Prior knowledge:
This protein has 4 helices and 12 strands; from the N terminus they run H-E-E-E-H-E-E-H-E-H-E-E-E-E-E-E. By secondary structure, the protein is α/β, with parallel strands linked by helices. It has one domain: Glucose Oxidase, domain 1. The strands form 2 sheets. Strands 1, 2, 3, 4, 5, 6, 7, 8, 11 and 12 form a 10-stranded mixed beta sheet that branches. A two-stranded antiparallel sheet has the order 9-10. The longest helix has 9 residues. The model has no long low-confidence stretch (mean pLDDT 95).
Amino acid sequence: MDEMKTTDLCDKYGELLVIRVMEPIGFRSFGGRNEFQGQIETVKCFEDNILVRSALERDGMDKVLIIDGGGSMHCALIGDNIASLAHRNGWNGILVFGCIRDSLTVSKIDIGVIALGTNPKKSAKNGEGKMNIVVSFAGVDFVPGEFLYVDEDGVVVSKRELVLP
């Protein structure tokens, strides 16, 4: 997929109600890529990252993982090991409604990672949560199979893959 600017997507598709724009509630870019896009897969978990690792162990070609961690700032849901795993398996990016750790190392991995912040504490390992369900935060429903576009200006979600001339 060619990289597309979220501003251009909003200009072309915004009035057609084809896209949804995530509210800018403090997400920051931590990965080696500031721009990424792909088909959505989801994990909903709270302070437990076993399902995150399980999702990222699969082939992620042209995909992004949306992690609904409930906005918890108490521990990290991904770190350098999981970000490296995602990169090796072809994932384009990860959006975390929660925290990451090992941010300096993650910034050197060629994958997009955005999250609310950092926390050095690791998560629980109980395997609690759900995979590939609709998750909602920052004013957007993230539906598995839909498409996510991320750059320095924001996050746009669409029901279908978008194209620009």
